[in-house]
Amino acid sequence: MAKQFSVRYGRNYKVVLAIVLPCLLIIPFIFILQRVKNMEEWQLMLIIYGFLGGIIGLALWLVLRTYPPTILGINNHEISLSFKQTGFLSTSNISFSISDIVSLNHYKMEDSEYFLIETQNPKRKFQISAYSNSIEDLT
Questions:
Q1: Cα separations (Å) of 28 from 31, 39, 45?
Q2: What stretch of H or E contains 101?
């Protein structure tokens, strides 16, 4: 008998990437901007505000991709993760045997709860959290 749940899947490197990547673009932008000497003030402000808007947009886009919606399927001897979105920062569907789970820890942060799961085959460590805190979504 298989059960399926809507969850969010996350890995720590994605969170670090979402925080660090936009910040790493600031220094090259400043060096490029220093090379341009003869520019009107309004053009300079337009470029700076456009760049800041792009950085904010990139950060939001990465944050939305950090914890993609996933379907967690539980069979008698197997757990599978099917991703609804594919693309940048999304992995392919994962399935592993229940006997391959090395550790399963429950954590609570403010009002949300999540599980940190480590498997040996394939070797990975990831987080699973509820897609919604609504009781209707969990049944």
A1: 5, 18, 17
A2: strand 101-109
Cis peptide before 122 (omega within 30 of 0): yes
Q: What is the pLDDT of residues 1-50, one digit of tens each?
A: 467 777 777 776 777 777 788 888 888 998 888 888 788 889 989 999 99
User: Per the structure block, which two tokens stand in for 5?
Assistant: 């749940």
Please check whether residue 6 is in contact with residue 137, taking contact to mean a CB–CB distance below 8 angstroms: yes
Which string of b and e fits 2-31 if b means at least 16 CB within 10 Å?
eeeeebbbbbeebeebbeeebeeeeeeeee
Q: Which domains does the chain have, with CATH numbers?
A: 3-9+69-132 (2.30.29.30), 16-64 (no CATH)
| Coil, helix or strand at residue 99 | helix
pTM: 0.60
Q: How many CB atoms lie within 10 A of CB 100?
A: 15
Q: What angle is formed at CA 54 by the lines to CA 52 and CA 60, rounded to 5 degrees?
A: 105
Query: How many whole angstroms separate alpha carbon 28 and alpha carbon 35?
Result: 11
Amino acid making up residue 94: I
